[in-house]
Structure formats: structure tokens, C-alpha cells
Amino acid sequence: MLSVESKRYVLLQEYRLHICMYFYLKEGGSFVHVGISSSTINHQARSKIKNIQKSSFQIATTTNHQQLRRNAHIISMHWLIRWLTNSSLLAWTILFCLSAATSSFSTTNMADFPPPKDYSHLIFETKQDNTKWFHERGPLWQGQAFSLQIKEVLYHQKSLFQDVLVFDSEHHGKVLVLDGVIQCTERDEFSYQEMMAHIPLYAHPDPKKVLVIGGGDGGVLREIARHPGVEEIVICELDKDVIDVSKKYLPFMAKGFDDPRVKVNIMDGAKFMEENQSSFDVIITDSSDPVGPACVLFETPFYKAMHGSLREGGIICTQGECVWLHVNLIQPLVKAITSLFTTVEYAYCTIPSYPSGQIGFIIASKGGKGCKVPTRTPEASVQKELRYYTPDIHQASFVLPAFAERAIFGSDR
Fold it and tell me: In the structure, what pLDDT confidence band is assigned to residue 253 with cuts at 50, 70 and 90?
């Protein structure tokens, strides 16, 4: 779980590096000249270089003022250094090295992240009865809001990446909020966690190795741990504070970390997948909402990384937003990755504390016949512990309302 602002900073730094890298190579430079081996440049960056040429030449002619502001200082610095050194190649070499030093391209420097925003304004007291409330508002659900009455604020601090809030509510139990957005409540978190984990796991005939990207609260881990056949559970969470806070205040979810099969990596999940090709039977991505540059998690390159890290016959399951609010985001992604995966499907569950009371899952397979019908079912002892998932609801979750079916998969369906 990583905030939008933190992703924005990372992507901006990487974009600057890509611009410098392109012109550096164009001037005849080599990574060997600056002491960087080709293995240091990750696969995603190498593939992006191919697309940098077009965007680089658009710098001088673009009508996108934000892009102009983003790149103006790079061009200005290049001409200044070129004037001082009388060498265009040397100028780009210096800028390349400076950009690499401040970029998350090779290793993320946590100290370089901008300070998280303050979301204290979302907590307020009513004058009539002196009750305290948390009031959630967000750009992806404009014109609507959701409020929970606060019994007690248990934790409110800023991590290196984001504003982290945990409070005990009057009717929803413990609540985790990151950068002003509700991540889970004790009352209804099980519906999301169970469906996100059990749909792909029970659709797979024999999952042995599972990767979770995000999910630092431990809820998805808790559900994966119910599968005795799984031999290894790997989680990549960038914000360690989310894990620590969840273990202290949300033990009903964080108990997932207690399973001895769990291996924790505090790092970027995309980088981990690049380093672990054809390694996992199931990959589950509990990502943040696709706002601004965080849309990278809702675009093809991230899904290509997951595809590469899957074994043949593997399944991915990612947070798929809400059909009542986001079909304009869901449809182009589903269309874009259809040629990449053997099957691409969409399921959903109901959860009252999420916007419009619903959240979806994009589920895709690398080989196989699809995930709509489970290939295995929970043992009786496990099913008694589950509060949302059943084999019947597994199949029913793929049945979409007519408007959503047409919007996501086309009018001919």
C-alpha cells in the first residue's frame, strides 16, 4: 500500500532519468562510460527507452504545459552544462548521473520522498452533540462521501510515504486509513480479503508459490494461509509502517504474518517481479486507486511484469475498482491485456465501507481455461471459518450487471 503522492514522486524521478538517458545514448554515450553495467538497468526502463524518443522530441512542441514545466529545468541544465564544458555528451553524462543518483530507478532512496500530506481535516467534531467523525472524500468518487463515527483515534502518524490513521469506530470496529482513504474496517474487510485471495487460489488446481504485492495489513496473507497446499507466501510491501501499525492495532488481519510460510520483502513489487521470472503460481496485487501517475499500476507494463513472473498455468488477481464509478478505467485495461493473457475476466464483491459499496477484481490467467469455476473447494473445516467466500459465490461474482458487462467487454456480450 503506497500513496498516490509517493508514486507521483517516484515516476517523476524515473521520467527525468529516462529523458537524460535517451539523449545521453543519442549523443553516443555508453553505460560503461559512467560505470553502470547493463544489468543495473532494469527491464522496465530498458523497454521504456524505446518509447522515449517520441516523447523526448515532443518537449519543444508539446502543448501539455505540465510536461513542459516538468522538462524545462532538464533542458535548461543541459544547455548550461554544455556551455560550461563545450560538450553535449559530457553535459548529458553529468545530468544522467545526477538523475540516477536521485531516482528510484535502481534503488529507492526513502529520504528523497516528499513529506506526506496532512489529512487531519478529514476528522471533525459536530457542534450539536460533540461526536467525532472521519469524513472520506476522494477524486475517484467526486460528488459523494462516506463518514464513520470515531470512538477513539488509536494512531495517527506520517510514515516516510503517507499519512497513516487507525481509529476505533462506533459501529465498524477498527479502521485503517491511508492518505485519507479507507483501506479496511473490522466490520467488512473479510469480503474483500477472502474474494481477492480465494478466487485465484481455488481456480488454480495446485498453487504452491504465491506472491502478494501490497497488502501490508496482512488480510490477504491470512486468507492464503488457509490453503495447506501452498508452500511459500511472499509479500512485497514498500511501507514498513503499514505492517508495523497493522500488527499492533489490527491483529485480526495482521495474524497473516504469523504463518511460517510467509516471507516479507520491504521493496517495490515491480522490481521484485523483474528479478523473479516464471516463479509464482498466483500473484495478488492489493494496489492503491489509479489516480494520476499511480495509473501505472492500472496499465499494461505492470501487467506484463506480472505475466513474466507467473509460471505457466498461473493466475493474477488485482484490485479492479468499482463498476459504478470506474468502467472508463476498467474497460481499456481489460482490452489492453487481453492479448497478453490467455483469459481476462472481471469479478466483484460487495463491501459497505468502499465507495458505492462494491469493489472488483481483474483476474487473468497464463494458460488454462479461465477462473470462473473453481477447480477446488474449501474443506468443510475451512468453509466454516469463511464469512463471504463459497464455491457458489465464486461463480456468481463473475456475473455482471448488463451495463457493466457491455461497458467492460463490449456491446455484443
Answer: very high
* Beta strands across the sheet bearing 358-365: 262-265, 232-236, 209-214, 280-286, 310-319, 358-365, 343-350
For CA atoms 13, 19, 20, 21, the dihedral sign is positive
153 DSSP β-pair partners: 167
Q: CA-to-CA distance for 183 and 217, rounded, in angstroms?
A: 9
Q: Which pLDDT score is estimated for 96?
A: 54
User: On the CB side of 103, how many CA atoms lie within 13 Å of its CA?
Assistant: 23
Residue-wise pLDDT tens digits, 300-330: 788 999 999 999 999 999 999 999 999 988 9
Q: Are 367 and 335 in contact, with CB atoms under 8 Å apart?
A: no
Report the length, in residues, of the chain.
413
Cβ partners under 8 Å of residue 346, min gap 6: 320, 330, 334, 360, 361, 362, 363, 398, 400, 404, 408, 409
Contact in structure between 211 and 231 (CB atoms under 8 Å)? no
Residue 69: pLDDT band with limits 50, 70, 90: very low
Measured distance CA(6)–CA(21) in Å, rounded? 23
Count other Cβ atoms within 10 Å, centred on residue 313. Answer: 15
Residues marked as catalytic: 286
CA distance from start to end of the chain:
35
Please tell me the distance from the alpha carbon of residue 89 to that of residue 168, in angstroms, as a whole number.
Answer: 58
Residue 252 — pLDDT band, cuts 50, 70, 90?
very high
Instruction: Give, for 135, the enclosing helix (H) or strand (E).
Output: strand 132-136
**Phi, then psi, of 362 in degrees rounded to 5:** -95, 120
Question: Across residues 334-355, what is the average pLDDT?
Answer: 96
